[in-house]
Design a protein that fits this description.
- The protein has 14 helices and 15 strands.
- By secondary structure, it is an alpha/beta fold.
- Helix 13 links the parallel strand 12 and strand 13.
- Helix 5 packs across helix 11.
- The longest helix is centred in the N-terminal third of the chain and has 20 residues.
- The chain starts with 15 loop residues before the first helix and ends with a strand.
Length: 436
């Protein structure tokens, strides 16, 4: 019987052309973030089980892959089965995002880091998702975070740097939707919802783009009689927002916010959002714009202030997001430390971009006749490598077209036929793939 040879569900193999595109995109992201003053870090992919389940990761904690303790005894296993407390068998787990590890990293290395720390953290994370289009069990996150800056400068820098990265990747049509968790709390209080019910109300509001205004209101009314009157006030606000959004983006300005929210709702927060728009909007690259979205929730429970998401017409889900999480790092230290981060949804954007080959990268395929002396072939390859080229050898086949197609797909820019009479790279006739 043939063995199963596919990767585990929710995980993928990448062919050379796919890997090349991914690495090129990551190189662009790293280059842009470095230019904006962010320093790249690296942290372990494994963290303590208790840290991953300390209430910092929201619903993602439920999707964590856990690692069994070493040397478990029979009675420990039997007790876990009898009590249903399987978590006592685990002491480590794979990281489900990069924010929790960053908080631990900062707490561990704070003495060696600047007062305001601008970090780039890129790497794989793991979640026990139900695999589907756009959702994987292993995927790459590309995060930038600023720790130690309490003011809007941090949000402005993150949005500016992320926008520049999107533009360099050629991802036009992006809208960065912005809101504030404090504004959401004020909105729920204005409507009359009980503070204890905030989480379930926000979860329902977060479904607005899927079930519409009426669906949100019906679900809220179904929670009980005490939700009916607040839901009426919320319905009016959601309808005003939906009507305004149908006409286009809602500007992150005083008039834009006033058009969709009650007057004097959390004035300090709305003033800060207006200031953020004034700082950032004039410097955004072409193809990226800001919009105010009072229904933006962001699911992570650790957000304490400004939140943002990147929408793109080519994706049914957000292609990036983040926000301020001032309370998280204080969980590891004896004092509060302000922090805010922005993550690019790498797996979603990679399918939306079309990166041309690097202009300064020469990649040569040598198509060799079987009669060519291997020693000569290696010498020619060495000459090309010394000249700065990337080189790969292939033996000529009867139908050479599929071979050339594969090389072009893998990012090679030129090819040359090598015959027995050739002894040097200077004897070869190099042809550009685009002209072949």
């Amino acid at each position: 019987m043939a063995q199963q040879v596919n990767p585990p569900r929710g995980m993928r193999d990448f062919l050379p052309a796919q890997k090349l595109k991914r690495e090129r995109a990551l190189a662009i992201i790293r280059e842009v973030y470095a230019a904006h003053g962010f320093d790249e870090i690296e942290a372990p992919v494994i963290e303590d089980y208790a840290r991953l389940h300390a209430g910092l990761g929201g619903d993602n904690e439920k999707l964590s892959f856990s690692i069994l303790k070493r040397g478990l005894r029979q009675e420990q296993l039997e007790n876990a089965v009898a009590t249903g407390a399987g978590d006592v068998l685990c002491d480590l787990g794979l990281r489900f995002d990069l924010t929790v590890p960053l908080a631990r990293y900062y707490a561990s290395n704070r003495a060696d880091l600047p007062a305001t720390f601008r970090a780039v953290h890129i790497g794989p994370v793991w979640r026990a998702e139900r695999p589907q289009k756009g959702r994987y069990r292993q995927f790459v996150q590309a995060d930038i975070d600023i720790i130690g800056e309490p003011g809007l400068l941090a949000e402005a820098e993150l949005i500016t740097a992320t926008s520049a990265a999107l533009a360099r990747l050629g991802l036009a049509g992006c809208v960065i939707r912005i809101n504030d968790r404090r504004l959401l709390a004020a909105l729920l209080d204005y409507c009359g919802f009980n503070a204890a019910d905030s989480d379930r109300v926000l979860i329902t509001i977060d479904k607005l783009d899927k079930i519409g205004v009426q669906g949100v209101i019906d679900e809220l009314r179904g929670f009980g009689a005490e939700f009916v009157t607040p839901a009426v006030k919320l319905e009016h606000i959601l309808n005003s927002y939906s009507e305004a959004a149908c006409a286009g983006d809602i500007a992150l300005t005083e008039s834009g916010i006033a058009a969709v929210l009650p007057n004097d709702l959390a004035p300090e927060v709305t003033s800060a959002l207006i200031s953020l728009g004034e700082m950032v909007a004039p410097g955004l690259p072409a193809g990226v714009r800001l919009a105010f979205d009072p229904t933006l929730v962001r699911g992570m429970g650790y957000y304490t202030g400004t939140i943002f998401e990147i929408a793109h017409p080519g994706s049914g889900s957000s292609v990036g997001g983040g926000g301020r999480y001032d309370g998280m790092i204080g969980r590891f230290l004896s004092q509060s430390v302000p922090a805010v981060g922005f993550s690019i949804g790498f797996e979603r954007i990679i399918d939306l971009i079309d990166l041309p080959p690097a202009a300064d990268q020469r990649a040569v395929a040598l198509i060799a006749d079987k009669a060519v002396d291997p020693a000569v072939l290696l010498r020619i390859k060495a000459e090309l490598i010394a000249s700065g080229a990337r080189v790969q050898i292939a033996t000529r086949t009867k139908n050479v077209r599929p071979l050339l197609d594969r090389f072009e797909l893998d990012g090679f820019t030129e090819f040359a036929n090598v015959r027995p009479e050739h002894t040097s790279m200077h004897d070869l006739d190099f042809k550009v793939f685009a002209e072949s």
